[in-house]
Amino acid sequence: MPTPTPRLIKKYPNRRLYDTGASRYVTLNDVYQLVIEKTEFAVLDARSGKDITRSILLQLIAEQEQRGAAMMSEEFLSQLVRAYGGPLQALVGTYLQQCLRLLMAQQQPLQDRMRSMVGVDPVATTGSLAERSLEIWREHAGGQTATGSEPER
């Protein structure tokens, strides 16, 4: 079975987005909906042909952060900026991606467990998720801590 081709969206110099599959101009809200629906897509600069999908996704995140209750604190964003160019840049990206993937995979089972157990401590449940995240971090760090030394045992 052939792999489906991602939906192609072109961004024109006038900042307008054109969905070539639907043959119509779309808004960032339309692109947001594609993300929510897990529709594969790529955004290309119409003039240069350069893939600008990542910058469009970052723009969507920035808009979501400004709309309501922010998901990322200023401290977190500052730490993320500082991670760029550092020796752990690739590791930080992989670690955050794995943590979010784990959290999303555990979201429904966690909600189901909390719903079925009266009096469960949500902090303890969150703590076990944090411990699992730390395990993932150590796996990706090759057994080293962020300082480069071996973890204490």
Continuous helix count: 5
Helix percent reads 40-55%
| pLDDT averaged residue by residue | 83
Residue windows where pLDDT falls under 50 for at least 5 positions: 145-153
Instruction: Tell me the strand percentage band.
Output: 5-15%
The number of distinct structural domains comes to: 2
**Shape, please?**
globular
Compute the number of strand runs. 4
What summary fits the major beta sheet? Answer: 4 strands, mixed
Order of helices and strands: EEEHEHHHH
The class by helix and strand makeup works out as alpha+beta
Terminus-to-terminus distance? 49 Å
**Main sheet strand line-up:** 3-2-1-4
CA-atom Rg in angstroms: 20 Å
Outline of the structure:
With 153 residues, the protein is an alpha+beta fold. It is 54% helix and 10% strand.
Describe it.
There is one protein chain. The chain is α+β, with helices and mostly antiparallel strands. The chain has two domains: 7-67, no CATH class; 74-141, no CATH class. Helices cover 54% and strands 10% of the residues. It has five helices and four strands. A four-stranded mixed beta sheet has the order 3-2-1-4. A hairpin with a 5-residue loop joins strand 1 (7-11) and strand 2. Helix 4 (89-116) runs antiparallel to helix 5. The longest helix is centred in the C-terminal third of the chain and has 28 residues, at 89-116. It is globular, with a radius of gyration of 20 Å. The protein starts with 6 loop residues before the first strand and ends in a 12-residue tail after the last helix.
